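Predicting holo structure, S-adenosylmethionine bound.
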Amino acid sequence: MLEDLYIKPYLLSLMALRPSALFGVVMAQPFYAGLLHDWADRTVDTHTEILELGCGPGLLSHTLAARPGCSVLGLDRAPSMIQAARRRPGAAQFAVGDATETGLSDGRFDCVVGASILNVVADPVALVREARRLSRGRVSFLVPSRRMTAVTAARFAERHRLGAWSRAVLSMWSTHARKLDEGELEVIFHTAGFAAPRVDHYLDGLVVGVSADR
Ligand SMILES: C[S@@+](CC[C@H](N)C(=O)[O-])C[C@H]1O[C@@H](n2cnc3c(N)ncnc32)[C@H](O)[C@@H]1O
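Done. Tokens:
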């Protein structure tokens, strides 16, 4: 198939050599952009001062910053991601920094969010604790679920008639990303100080969003 012969080897080379370009391709896929929109619609709603942790090349930060009255800071520890985010047109601001130890002041944001970072950092509890410290309202993270396997991802791609690029992106996501299940997420949120985290499902359950209010 086209994606096995050409697209996946190209994406793998981006992963090794230019991760910011890889996540630019990921974010351009309609299924992924739609996922970020759905999650933001459900979690950000009326919040206006937003921090995005692990913003990568910044698509979500810029999308949120285009909402009326919203101001968004995107933070990522990789300078190449922040350079790519700043090159995109949009109103979000960006900074290089460690999301588990930002140095920003307590309760500075209405809402602190992060997509595909909770499953990446070495200490997820430290990440949620820092997000809780920085938020005076909501904290929400989006992560691939343990239900996402090569088989369930391929079924999803077929059911939703994804194009070759989206199929390749989803297939790589399913094989390369670290996954977390609902129980693990609830333990992480409880340990970080949240009594009642809420779990939402996306992409037919392949992805979960976990949110809590202060
Ligand atoms: C899998 S990418 C996700 C990017 C983007 N949020 C998305 O949905 O495509 C994970 C991002 O988290 C960033 N990251 C990982 N650990 C981090 C940390 N401790 N502090 C800040 N950013 C971090 C990486 O540089 C990368 O841009």
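The first helix runs from residue 2 to 17.
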